[in-house]
Design goal:
homodimer; 279 residues; alpha+beta; disordered N terminus; DNA-binding
DNA sequence: TTCCGCCCGTGATGTCGGTCACGCCACTAA
DNA sequence: TTAGTGGCGTGACCGACATCACGGGCGGAA
């Protein structure tokens, strides 16, 4: 061990609940933006036109005319931790453009078992498939971190897409990516021989999208999920996740320090995939 | 038992391999269509403009100008059973519009385990997510029934979408539906407590899209998959599928006659979902 | 015809992991 | 301080299912 503390002791374990303030522009000059403060400690971005993230994000980065129109039909709104944007089975009211915060997308069976399909990041459009096809929301969207999610009613959104072909293409792109992540999720659930393999796949996936520095073989990333939630992602029980975490730590595949996850060697974890048993 | 024969005896068990001839127009007047015969017993639809399915299908049913343009960039081609349209991991060459036949979409792990994600039906556009996003095909497309699949190269397809906003919307719609089916697949794999539950979910899903008459509680449908393939869909072993089939037949939940599947009561099967144990 | 390959049926065996049942720690609210 | 809550750690148990190993029936090819 390298002096790294256990997850369970001495450190505040969860940053999930802590408010994450939207980082401001790098140059620090924020006073020109139409900004106000919401009950949940969030900074509200009033207008998409001035959104500091406009350039980086798939759906926001559109020609000025389109963004203007988009802005007109969008209602900004904020949601506290624990809120629910929409529920599986509801008929689609419209989409939410996630500006800040994080959302958990899940589905639940009749007996209460939950499958977490995806954690949604800022810049994504939530409820897109259902809104496009008109069929009910297939997932439930719960707020994990206080969130600004701007709502666009279904009809207005569809009209907007009809008028702006580029936007429709963007929508198709995001749907494609969403599908991609769904397939990769199916792979981890469906192709693994053991829970350990599933967890390894999950950790690698997680790090490839949350790593602080992706170039090296060693990876560090924030783990903002509880064991329970991880279990619900990979389709296992909370207890096995806990046990596997201990095992991985024992086998030097993993270190946990507070909410920071360290994978000393990505390659070592990858070796674990599809290795039925070292005999 | 109602005199229904066992799957294993006396009947030709698989129609999968049998050629399915594309049904002609109801009125029988086919001689006006630009039709020719391919090596595999298939009827080729040379031009989308005259495609007999144009009205029913999501992507084909577009304004004349769009269909014309589409027709210009499309290369019709046929593929025998066992052929592979594209392989997981290849960079996307373009899309295939599936005119007739059936395609198996699957993903495989390093050790050879296979997960069948979906069976694709005529009218769908294959390779769409990868072609739109530019990332590699996430699945492998294998021909199960001799197939006509018209190819459109990626660049031409993207340009086409840029010029025809309606088409982009259709693409988004199909992506939404594809995503929907992926989620439902994840539900059957991820939320079930037992293999029996998974199989029941699969059968219900299958019947809801292949039933001959959906109004009644009793359902009949063609089962064109082998036990092995069903196993690969629901993430179980071939043997358990076989055993579960026997069990379901014993419990009167299911009858199999040749390749025809009969579910006497859909409700009875549904009772099986999320019922941990009848105690 | 014979042979081979593909599918389905079935028993025996071992084991992974779900479930139950605890206990411990950290944090919060009263 | 105490009680309550939410998350993690661990042991014991045992059942569902993967795996291995065969056998048998059918169809297609030689």
């Amino acid at each position: 061990m390298t002096g790294i503390e256990e997850w369970s002791s001495s450190m505040p374990r969860r940053t999930v609940g802590g408010f994450r303030i939207v980082p401001r522009g790098k140059n620090g000059s924020t006073h020109e933006r139409p900004v106000m403060h919401a009950p949940y400690g969030l900074e509200i971005i009033e207008s998409c036109l001035r959104c500091p993230h406009r350039q980086e994000r798939l759906f926001c980065n559109l020609p000025p005319a389109a963004v203007q129109r988009l802005s007109a039909i969008t209602s900004p709104s904020t949601h506290p931790k624990g809120a629910t944007l929409f529920v599986e089975g509801q008929s689609p009211r419209g989409v939410y453009i996630l500006c800040s915060g994080r959302i958990k997308l899940s589905t639940t069976s009749a007996d209460g078992k939950t499958l977490i399909v995806r954690m949604s990041e800022p810049g994504e459009v939530l409820g897109l498939p259902a809104t496009i096809t008109g069929s009910p929301y297939e997932l439930t969207a719960d707020v994990v971190e206080p969130t600004q999610a701007n709502f666009i009613p279904r009809n207005e959104f569809l009209n907007f897409l009809r008028d702006h072909g580029e936007a429709a293409l963007r929508v198709a792109q995001q749907l494609g990516e969403t599908y991609h992540s769904a397939v990769s999720e199916m792979r981890t659930i469906g192709l693994s021989h053991s829970a350990g393999e599933k967890l390894a796949r999950f950790l690698l996936d997680w790090c490839s999208s949350n790593a602080t520095d992706k170039s090296k073989d060693e990876v560090r990333a924030h783990m903002t999920l509880t064991h329970e939630e991880i279990a619900q992602v990979i389709g296992a029980s909370r207890e096995t996740v806990t046990r596997l975490f201990s095992e991985f730590k024992r086998r030097q595949l993993l270190q946990v320090s507070g909410s920071v996850l360290v994978i000393p060697s990505r390659a070592a974890l990858e070796n674990l995939l599809n290795a039925p048993e070292p005999r």
